[in-house]
Amino acid sequence: MKTYSIDLRERIVEAVDNKEGTLREIAETFKVNKSFIDKLLKQRRETGSIEALPHGGGPSRLIDVEKEVLIGNYVLENIDATLDEICDYLARKAKLRVSVSTMCRALQRINLPRKKKL
Asked: Which pLDDT score, from 0 to 100, does residue 108 have?
């Protein structure tokens, strides 16, 4: 979801400071949720800033660089290996069970195609 502009954030905080209505009324005026105003005011109290916070990240990848090298070497040795076979190999060697789609994304990252040419 796209963040709200700093201009909108400033106008909301100014409306709250000037007591131009209840938080619910201000939220309706600016077409935002009341919970957004609550979070914005809490952030201003705690940090002194109303700027958008950076993205929080996400879950880390299951297959790190070491495992990518392991997979890459296996695929180069066994050029016709299926995704299921590569997943089984990783489970045996690295004690990590991943889905076929996770394996497919890992192969794409290391530029090894899933489909083989005859």
From this structure: 92
CA distance 9 to 58: 25
Q: What is the pLDDT of residue 114?
A: 61
Within 13 Å of residue 106, how many CA atoms lie on the same side as its CB? 23
Query: In the chain, which ranges are continuous DSSP H helix?
Result: 6-17, 23-30, 34-47, 65-77, 83-94, 100-109
Amino acid making up residue 51: E
Q: 117 to each of 27, 63, 84, 87, how far by Cα in Å?
A: 58, 25, 18, 21
Backbone angles phi, psi at 63, to 5 degrees: -100, 105
Which residues in the chain land under pLDDT 50?
none
